[in-house]
Amino acid sequence: MPPAPPSPPSGNPVITAVDTYDIRFPTSRRLAGSDAMNPDPDYSAAYLVLRTDAGDGLEGHGFAFTIGRGNDVQVAAIEALRPHVVGRSVEEVCGDPGTLSRVLVGDSQLRWLGPEKGVMHMAIGAVVNAVWDLAAKRAGEPLWRLLAHADPEWLVSQVDFRYLTDALTPEEALELLRRGKDGADTREAALRERGYPAYTTSPGWLGYSDEKLTRLAEQAVADGFSQIKLKVGADLDEDVRRLRLARQAVGPDVRIAVDANQRWGVAEAITWTRALADSDPYWIEEPTSPDDILGHAAVRRGVAPVKVATGEHVHNRVVFKQLLQAGAVDVVQIDAARVGGVNENLAILLLAAKFGVPVCPHAGGVGLCELVQHLSMFDYVALSGTTRNRVIEYVDHLHEHFVTPVLVRGGHYTAPTAPGFSAQLRAEAIAEHSYPDGTFWAAERAARAEEAA
Amino acid sequence: MPPAPPSPPSGNPVITAVDTYDIRFPTSRRLAGSDAMNPDPDYSAAYLVLRTDAGDGLEGHGFAFTIGRGNDVQVAAIEALRPHVVGRSVEEVCGDPGTLSRVLVGDSQLRWLGPEKGVMHMAIGAVVNAVWDLAAKRAGEPLWRLLAHADPEWLVSQVDFRYLTDALTPEEALELLRRGKDGADTREAALRERGYPAYTTSPGWLGYSDEKLTRLAEQAVADGFSQIKLKVGADLDEDVRRLRLARQAVGPDVRIAVDANQRWGVAEAITWTRALADSDPYWIEEPTSPDDILGHAAVRRGVAPVKVATGEHVHNRVVFKQLLQAGAVDVVQIDAARVGGVNENLAILLLAAKFGVPVCPHAGGVGLCELVQHLSMFDYVALSGTTRNRVIEYVDHLHEHFVTPVLVRGGHYTAPTAPGFSAQLRAEAIAEHSYPDGTFWAAERAARAEEAA
Lengths: 453, 453
Description:
Number of helices of chain A: 18
Strand content of chain A: 5-15%
CATH class of the largest domain in chain A: Alpha Beta
Keywords (chains A, B): Lyase, Magnesium, Metal-binding
Structural class of chain A: alpha/beta
Radius of gyration of chain A: 21 Å
Number of domains of chain A: 2
Order of helices and strands of chain A: EEEHHHHHHHHHEHEHEHEHEHEHHEEEHH
Largest sheet of chain A: 9 strands, mixed
Oligomer: homodimer
Number of strands of chain A: 12
CATH topology of the largest domain in chain A: TIM Barrel
Distance between the termini of chain A: 63 Å
Protein name (chains A, B): L-fuconate dehydratase
Organism (chains A, B): Actinomadura yumaensis
Domain Mandelate racemase/muconate lactonizing enzyme C-terminal (chains A, B): 210-306
Helix content of chain A: 40-55%
Cofactor (chains A, B): Mg(2+)
């Protein structure tokens, strides 16, 4: 069991509300975030707050990340889950998020809209993550530490093994988690001292000039990052040139990952990646459709020794399972807000540990760095037990809108100390960026109306 | 090119509206439709009507099928596509639905919500299918015939080959379609005379008594069906017993498919299916997660000679491609309203033809029989050229709500003759079953309020 929560003032407090917010940031106006498939993202959050009558002032915050249009659809999906959540006992839900997670995934009518994929599954992830935020706040612990100190049996009970047992049984998971306890205290101390290694995508967006790419790449090295990432896939000659520039800027010892954002078919992925080989790219990320397990396996065979990474759009544990079974990836890129929340990410971390494949989370957007750091830190302290070849993506976007933003220093994420999942937006951010009636968007509309007049 | 549409009265008519409707039928009250994963479906349609200013009275109708809760989320997703549709030239869209299909799939912000899966992709399918309904009405042809008489080059232009070319190139697709022209006239005449073989799921729902199962199975044989289907997966002893009853009722020569609706993991699927073997099941359908390509391949190896069928929840052409590449299925079960509409189903039919695997569509629900018959009939006349080992699912539900309902006689679907995609609900059905304010649902609410008072 996780550390016991403080006694609530009322006898059996319940969740009284699931309040939702359509939050959008106008990031498309400055080209940060542009890649070969996503030229103009407006980073957005379909955001929710769980409120209770516990009287302790604690709320659970969670969100699905989107890139603009459709954020309203994502909010509608979260609202469709509300009847499963409101009225539940806070203690029961926070003591066992896995049961609620199974209820949400198992709603037989909503399940038809997936199953376990796309809008409906991301909505489940948002709600489940909000529950973990509340549970960690009640426990007075940052989520990574709640997980790292939890009982292995209890962690196993939090995982849905349906469709997984041909690759990972509950018994194997328990063994991995028990083994993870060896030396956990030493690793926790090391984590608090050094943090968790990060890499940065900031230099590599497609819209940037050569001068900006070079300057940001040099800055990344100066800031202590040992890996950067470049977006590729729009124009081969340009990619060859930009990658050489980046290599010159960072020198031979800093890793450069490249990211095609699903742009290619299998043959093109192989040809294109090979054409970049003389600049020594470390991994090729999302070379093709995130659904194409066999395609990734073929690409991996075709581009070695360049590694293959994917995961930010892999929609559930069943696809991750197969990517590992098929030997299709060298790097598992979990995302905190794509799958069904912490519980499903536990399953994916366990699968990666079983297969011995490093996890390097996808982050960026809005709030993804804040969330996913907790999962990697738990993995280091109490599961995989190593940070070797493991880095969390870092993009310096929109952190200022969070109550407890990530802190990256010397190329490392600092271990969070505040209780919770670092998921909470500042009240001002919600008031300004609620769409379409927050103060930012209302002012935009007024300005456009004035222009038109 | 498809047959030229009649000249419109106005110069360049455009699509003026995408009107949406949340339509729900209270099917959960009579146990028809119950299976191991879906105990109480309320068959529903997130329904849309494309209206134009052509002045010819023609509209395009389309829908996503859901089973109740979340139908509102599905409607919201269709509405998110509206800006891509309203204002487009009717002639351009109907002459080339593939271009609009690519625009919808390619919206970089909405794409994040999939990509190409779940709620957002089903919404795209609904809109694309509505365009084909309009195109076929304008051409004065049932859709199957419009497709069967279309030029092979034009059909190839309607397919998005992204992520497919490692399994099927445009050149191979063209060759398949050209070969499909040989003997097409003869097959069209045969189709008009005999119809297309059907199988029926009506006897096999889990909620039915033994007496009802036996009676409906005997009736199915009397009605001319050469295959029936039973739902399994809730209780093994019960399944063994029910399957024996059904085998006794239909005799040795009628095929009995069994359908687990994703209930099992890989090992359980193999054990359970083997335990049913003495009643000679023809195929096991959805033995495990629709995402588990490698799992289906393992099940297929483990249960032969029982065949493996899946597809109703397979979310796009990339997963179908892999099921075929991996030798994971004996039967491809397309669904007209799960993937991105007619264009993506063309891709899937072409893949199945390339790999020589028979297509036996999923149908039932509301309107799925009406839609999918057109795809199988096109496939017979002008692509695969055969109905051998091919049957379309038939469930006798809710057809009365359609303007041109399917007509199944002697175990065969009769070839539709009315122009369009058979997608149009009767105005009364929309007025009664709109949720929550249609006359049926309003009366339900009033009755419940009275009970409570």
